[in-house]
Recover the amino acids of this structure.
């Protein structure tokens, strides 16, 4: 049985990012494992998904995450993997510079911090990563300052990401990104990378997985063609 | 006069499709035309706005006011922008420049409405709800609320608002110089809708005074207004239509005043026909088809939950109007069980959601014309009627393809 913890989905699912938890659980099931999604847990979850919310709830979410801080650090040290998107990613960094006057302290799970930007970006985001090209969508009003020695999730091919060059951050088995929505469904290679890290013997070769991944590829290719990128 | 000529020209140019063109021209030639006319009705100007339910609420309110003998000017729901309203005005204006109406009731998109609100002097503003709607256009519910506030703060007499919507309640608390009338649902109705009513934030308690939806059973509702319990037949199934009716009744009580007659109002709403895409069963190529319009995650969930269980012929079509379909993922579509065809320019995206939610997909055909032709050609379903669930863009394309009036 693998357990996927979906953190505060009532506040962190505005773009459907919390649904990444269901994607991980479904893919594990299709590969023959028992899987469940929980929204709170007393035992260490194998995978943790933190989605994105609206700015009005940043403070509330930050308080909630602070209460989980020791658990999150401990789980990651003991082998859990984590995916955080949008404001969830920002609040797991050192902090969020909401405005010149307002700083919200984060959990510092990721290197770097979120910086205020002049404009909102709400468009396609394509990222080149070690686990393949990720195609998705970004919808945020801030950038991200990543220290030079820290690891990004990948480099931006189309869109803004952190700053137009790098996108997201990674630290051990924790990955943060501005790719919002169910990015793991559209980019199953990323999902399988996370699942393989926590689930020895995971092989995504079921008929169901192949059929669904064929649909995901068609969705990615449609966007790639629109952006004049090579199709797969 | 200029407007009349332009309208005729637009009609000649494109049959049935020129509705916003004459308004655009008039607004350039005579920029004050729109506001001067709208602010000049004897019994005032009513604006209905909000994320969802505007169209139905507006139609219900117009029906109730007309049943009370008022002459109403309203805008067609397909043209709820400034140009569309101007075009609708030109339709009604006489050669000497007068309009045969006592009152205007306008449905206004929150984005466009906020832009023209500063020039309008509405007597009553009706606020339906705040939902997470068209997220890449309005970004988030806070911004939607700010736009609704811009419109509502123009009301000179009355703001009619949804007491179950926590964001609207917080906004209403800031209004001081107008009467606030509330509508909402009973505890019982809320309990029967465990996923809630789709608002960005639901109020913690039910309203104590106002127009209350006491009970809903399919397309029948009991609504308490001014101490009487009215039984109303809704144009389609679902609590959200009952809430629209409560909004319309609440607004008409304030507008009609002492002449308000509850039985007349209930009869007017009950006589309304279902609207295309909102519960109407249409006969197309000899097949009975129900079309279901999806405008945002909340309406998607409410409408899917209202469908009969075990439908065996369903077509789901998502178009380019849904820029990023990710935000539809929180909608639980598992109740559909099986979808015959997935179509539209976002077919692969919505198909992914259906697959992950364990809905069996028979076929993905992004070409909407081919998909709808093949779907209609299938023999009649064994359960219910053929059901087409679509986004607004796919609705327009399918109507054109099937030769149905726009």
């Amino acid at each position: 049985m693998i357990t996927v913890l979906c953190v505060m989905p009532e506040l962190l699912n505005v773009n459907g990012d919390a649904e990444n938890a269901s994607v991980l659980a479904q893919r594990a099931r299709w590969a023959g494992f028992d899987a469940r999604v929980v929204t709170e847990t007393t035992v260490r979850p194998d995978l943790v998904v933190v989605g994105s919310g609206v700015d009005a709830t940043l403070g509330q979410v930050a308080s909630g995450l602070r209460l989980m801080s020791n658990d999150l650090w401990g789980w990651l040290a003991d082998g859990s993997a984590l995916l955080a998107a949008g404001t969830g990613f920002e609040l797991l960094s050192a902090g969020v510079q909401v405005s010149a006057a307002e700083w919200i302290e984060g959990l510092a799970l990721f290197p770097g911090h979120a910086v205020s930007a002049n404009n909102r970006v709400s468009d396609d985001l394509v990222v080149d990563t070690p686990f393949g090209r990720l195609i998705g969508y970004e919808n945020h009003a801030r950038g991200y300052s990543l220290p030079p020695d820290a690891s990004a999730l990948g480099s931006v091919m189309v869109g803004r990401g952190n700053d137009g060059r790098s996108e997201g951050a990674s630290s051990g088995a924790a990955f943060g990104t501005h790719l919002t929505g169910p990015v793991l469904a559209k980019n199953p290679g990323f999902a399988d990378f996370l699942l393989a890290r926590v689930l020895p013997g995971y092989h995504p070769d079921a008929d169901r997985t192949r059929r669904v991944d064929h649909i995901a590829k068609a969705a990615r290719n449609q966007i790639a063609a629109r952006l004049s990128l090579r199709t797969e | 006069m200029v407007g009349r000529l332009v309208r005729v020209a637009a009609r000649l140019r494109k049959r049935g499709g020129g509705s916003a063109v004459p308004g655009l021209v008039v607004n350039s030639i005579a920029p004050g035309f729109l506001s001067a006319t709208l602010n000049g009705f004897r019994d005032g100007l009513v604006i209905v706005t909000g994320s969802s339910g505007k169209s139905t609420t507006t139609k219900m309110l117009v029906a109730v006011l007309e049943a009370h003998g008022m002459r109403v000017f309203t805008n067609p729901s397909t043209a709820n922008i400034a140009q569309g309203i101007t075009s609708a005005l030109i339709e009604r204006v006489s050669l000497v420049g007068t309009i045969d109406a006592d009152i205007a009731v306008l449905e206004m998109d929150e984005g466009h409405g906020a832009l023209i609100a500063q020039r309008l002097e509405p007597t009553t503003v009706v606020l339906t709800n705040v939902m997470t709607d068209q997220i890449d256009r309005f970004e988030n519910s806070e911004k939607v609320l700010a736009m609704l506030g811009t419109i509502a703060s123009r009301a000179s007499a009355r703001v009619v608002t949804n007491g179950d919507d926590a964001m609207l309640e917080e906004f209403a608390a800031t209004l001081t110089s107008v009467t606030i009338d509330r509508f909402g649902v009973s505890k019982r109705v809320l309990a029967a809708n465990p996923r809630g009513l789709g608002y960005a934030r639901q109020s913690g308690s039910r309203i104590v005074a106002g127009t209350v939806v006491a009970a809903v059973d399919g397309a029948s509702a009991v609504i308490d207004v001014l101490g009487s319990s009215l039984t109303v037949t809704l144009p389609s199934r679902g609590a959200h239509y009952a809430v629209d009716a409560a909004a319309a009744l609440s607004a008409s009580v304030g507008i009609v005043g002492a002449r308000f007659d509850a039985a007349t109002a209930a009869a007017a709403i009950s006589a309304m026909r279902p609207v295309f895409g909102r519960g109407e069963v249409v006969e197309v190529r000899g097949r009975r088809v129900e079309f279901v319009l999806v405008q945002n995650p909340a309406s998607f969930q409410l409408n899917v939950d209202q469908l009969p269980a075990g439908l065996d012929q369903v077509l789901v079509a998502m178009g380019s109007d849904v820029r990023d379909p990710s935000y539809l993922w929180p909608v639980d579509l598992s109740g559909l069980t099986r979808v015959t065809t997935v179509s539209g320019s976002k077919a692969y995206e919505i198909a992914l959601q259906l697959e992950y939610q364990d809905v069996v997909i028979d076929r993905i055909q992004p070409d909407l014309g081919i998909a709808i032709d093949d779907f209609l050609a299938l023999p009649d379903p064994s359960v219910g009627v053929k059901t087409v669930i679509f986004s607004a863009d796919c609705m327009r394309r399918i109507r054109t393809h099937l030769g149905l009036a726009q």
Chain A touches chain B through 30 residues (CB under 8 Å). The longest strand of chain A covers residues 113-129. Chain A has one domain: 2-226. Helices of chain A lie at 20-30, 58-67, 69-77, 86-91, 183-186, 188-198, 207-226.
